[in-house]
Design brief:
- InterPro entries: Bact_Kbp (IPR052196), LysM (IPR018392), LysM_dom_sf (IPR036779).
- By secondary structure, the protein is of the alpha/beta class.
- It has two domains: about 90 residues, Alpha-Beta Plaits (2-Layer Sandwich); about 55 residues, Membrane-bound Lytic Murein Transglycosylase D, Chain A (Roll).
- About 35% of the residues lie in helices and about 20% in strands.
- The protein has four helices and six strands.
- The strands form two sheets. Strands 1, 2, 3 and 4 form a four-stranded mixed beta sheet that branches.
- Helix 2 links the parallel strand 2 and strand 3.
- Helix 3 crosses helix 4.
- The protein starts with 19 loop residues before the first helix and ends in a 5-residue tail after the last strand.
Length: about 160
C-alpha cells in the first residue's frame, strides 16, 4: 500500500494535541491578554504619578485607548487639571488626551506651547509675555513635572499661565 497522506489537523483528537487553528487562537488570546495587562499597568502608573506629584484630583481615572488617554475626575482647580493633562500627554505612546475632568474652583485657562528645537524658557517667555525674564513663571507653572528650567525637550507640551502685565 505504501505511504498515504492525511491532513494533520483533521480527524479524531486521540493525542490531545491542539490543532494549528487552536494554537493560533490561543496565541492571539495570550497576546490580547498581555496587551490589556500592559495598558492597565500604564493607566495605574499614570494615576500613581499624578497622585505622587501631589496634584489634587478626586476620583481620578485614566484609561488608554490606542494612543488616546481619557482622563476623568474632579480637579481642585484649573491648574491641577492642566498639570494632570500634561503628565498624561507628555508620556510616550500618548498622542491625544481626551480631558473629561471637571473643575471645583474655576480660574482662567492657561495656553499650551509645544517645545521645538532651540526653545528655552526665556524664548518662550519672550514670545508669550514680551519679557524673557518671566521664564520663572513658566517654570513654576510646570512644576513638579519640570525639575530644572534648562531641561525641556522638543515635543514636550508646557503650560503658559495667564499673567498680569
Amino acid at each position: 500500500m505504501g505511504l498515504i497522506s492525511f491532513i494533520k489537523d483533521a480527524g479524531a483528537k486521540i493525542f490531545g494535541y491542539p490543532t494549528e487553528a487552536e494554537k493560533q487562537a490561543q496565541a492571539a488570546a495570550d497576546k490580547a491578554a498581555a496587551e490589556a495587562a500592559r495598558i492597565a499597568a500604564a493607566e495605574q502608573r499614570l494615576e500613581e504619578t499624578i497622585n505622587d506629584l501631589g496634584l489634587k484630583v478626586q476620583n481620578l481615572d485614566v484609561s488608554i485607548e490606542g494612543d488616546t488617554a481619557v482622563v476623568t475626575g474632579l480637579a481642585y482647580d484649573q491648574t491641577n487639571k492642566e498639570k494632570t493633562v500634561l503628565v498624561v500627554g507628555n508620556s510616550v505612546g500618548i498622542a491625544v488626551v481626551d480631558d473629561r475632568m471637571e473643575v471645583e474652583h474655576t480660574e482662567p485657562e492657561a495656553q499650551f506651547h509645544t517645545v521645538v528645537s532651540g526653545d528655552t524658557l526665556s524664548k518662550i517667555a519672550k514670545k508669550f509675555y514680551g519679557n524673557a525674564m518671566k521664564y520663572p513663571v513658566i517654570f513654576e507653572a510646570n512644576k513638579p513635572m519640570l525639575s530644572d528650567p534648562d531641561k525641556i525637550y522638543p515635543g514636550q507640551v508646557l503650560r503658559i499661565p495667564v499673567t498680569e502685565a
